[in-house]
Amino acid sequence: MKQFKYSFGMTLIELVVVMSIIATLAAIGIPSYQTYLIESRRSDAINALQHNQLLIENYIQNNGSTPTSSQVTLLTTSPEGFYDMTYNQIDSANYKIIATANSGKSQNSDTGCTVISVINQMDTVYPAYCH
Question: Do residues 94 and 20 touch, judged by C-beta distance below 8 A?
Answer without folding.
Answer: no
